[in-house]
Amino acid sequence: MKKQFRQQDKRAVARGIFESMQTIPAIFADRIQKLGILSLFFLIFGIVFGIRWQSAGFFAWSLFLSAAVGIQALMVFRDTVKGRYETVTGTVEEVKKWMPGQFQKIRICQKDGSYTELLLGKKFSVEQGKRYRFYFKQKKNVLLGIRQVDAVFDTGSFFGLEETSDNQKTKDNDKHLERR
Fold first, then answer.
1. Which residues 6+ apart lie within 8 Å of 41 measured at CB?
2. CA end-to-end span of the chain, whole Å?
3. How many Å apart are CA 174 and CA 139, to the nearest integer?
4. Are 26 and 159 a contacting pair, CB within 8 Å?
5. DSSP assignment letter at 140
6. Residues 6 or more apart whose Cβ sits within 8 Å of residue 141
């Protein structure tokens, strides 16, 4: 009897995880998948070469790295499922280089007419006139109180961006409309 309940609980948990993966944005699913693959790589690499070189220290450090990356993947999954992220959606009005070679300052016009300025790394390419959705970690803490300095030092809060269009409805917009 107890085994039957345990199996049902395991199935319910697995079903819940699968359903949660279907509802999260592609940016987060991609990040979770990459972190999971990296964790698995560290684990396999550590086992193979730890045995080959007969080094318990190498195996232990690989196991530690694998666990750390796996925990990071689980934390991203948890934060995504619980909705602990913010989005900024709008049309890119202006892209300026800021601090030569490192950052770009992006000015976004949102649907309500308000403007938002973002400071992103140079590796993220955006084009003027196109609509994008930017995903950020929900953070309340401020490092120094100086907005531009905090933006430079706060490296872990930006998850990614995706190009959107006015006609395309995303899962986030659908959820927002359902809540009303």
1. none
2. 44
3. 24
4. no
5. -
6. none
Kindly report the number of other CB atoms within 10 A of residue 14's CB atom.
10
- Calculate the alpha carbon distances from 163 to 22, 30, 83, 116 in Å: 20, 15, 20, 17
Residue 144's CB is within 10 A of a number of other CB atoms, namely 9
Amino acid at 32: I
Model's pTM, two decimal places?
A: 0.69
User: Does residue 1 have a pLDDT over 60?
Assistant: no
Cα angle, residue 65 at apex, residues 61 and 66 outer, rounded to 5°:
115
Residue that is written with structure tokens 């080959």 in the block: 52
Tens of pLDDT, residue by residue over 153-170, are 555 678 889 999 764 444
User: Does the pLDDT at position 105 exceed 80?
Assistant: yes
Helical ranges in 82-163 per DSSP H: 147-153
Phi-psi region of 110 (alpha: psi -120 to 50; beta: other; left: phi over 0): beta
Q: Is 94 helix (H, G, I), strand (E, B) or coil?
A: strand
Backbone angles phi, psi at 13, to 5 degrees: -65, -45
